[in-house]
Amino acid sequence: MKSNNVQWHSSIVTRARREKCNGHKGAVVWFTGLSGSGKSTLAHAVEDYLHSGGCRTFVLDGDNVRHGLCADLGFTDVERTENIRRVGEVSKLFVEAGNIVLTAFISPFENDRSSVENILSPGDFIEIYCSCSLAVCEKRDVKGLYKKARAGEINNFTGISSIYEPPRNPALCIETDVSTLDESVKMVIEILKRKNLINFA
Amino acid sequence: MKSNNVQWHSSIVTRARREKCNGHKGAVVWFTGLSGSGKSTLAHAVEDYLHSGGCRTFVLDGDNVRHGLCADLGFTDVERTENIRRVGEVSKLFVEAGNIVLTAFISPFENDRSSVENILSPGDFIEIYCSCSLAVCEKRDVKGLYKKARAGEINNFTGISSIYEPPRNPALCIETDVSTLDESVKMVIEILKRKNLINFA
Question: Is residue A164 part of a domain?
Fold first, then answer.
């Protein structure tokens, strides 16, 4: 760490005060899976449900991170790792602020996901695997990226020219090529209730 | 920008919905000034006031950023610029989430502060200059850093071996070697009220 001479002192407004004010706990709900597996769609749908229930939430995904905080990073292994590291650190800040953060990144490497879990407090990291066959993701190809990757126009594309390491022990595995969006949202909400992060019906 | 093939689509839960839910607007209150000028103390005191009034707030400062998101950065001009760029991008996300973000960084370069203002929507950046003479900051020397800088143990130390460019047109200039903390908090709150970001008494 290059940042010597920087002391940590805790905020007067603590996480506990924020959570009491919000009526729920902070946490990171980490969606991982192939491009096209439905991570972002599910994250936003869960957020909508939680927000309607009065929760303080935020979705971090490629759309709002890759254009801003990580606009200097590409998609090599090293850059993906740095991307996920930064997302982890920002998630930690949002949790400290009392939010339920929903992240939607391919996050293909197990080590990177573990590193995020390790900077958070125990219980703050809830890993959800959006499991969907490459064939289905490629057939959907909402953004036309698989076609480009197959044509060699995009390098380091997960599933085609870069590996994906599925979570070994996720809090939840959703087969997004089988479950509907509504069913998937309910599964996520059930997990959050079971972990006592939220308490509404 | 290296992040091609990433499309922007807006969240279902909009900033407007979050602000309505919170009862106040989102904004970045950007404190700038020399080390020891009281930025962090003031930011936390303002946060305490706002939180007690029911606002959703968060303080970003060296303490929670330099150890995490920016732990890979030192204090050269280039690294300071990247540090402030990242803080700006994180602030933007917090504002999008409906928060009043209070940032406490020396942020010595006018260009860096302008860059942050420019990535935000008009009116979202409120610059507050904590004006305090180098002599007073050095006399306080809470963290013992000025002593180290004078002894040559710290390089690129603002005010000693690195320049500080004061804001030309801040929303507010507080002489923190003259005003008390309570007076300073009141001045900041008045600005936020005048800008219709908050509406409590």
Answer: yes
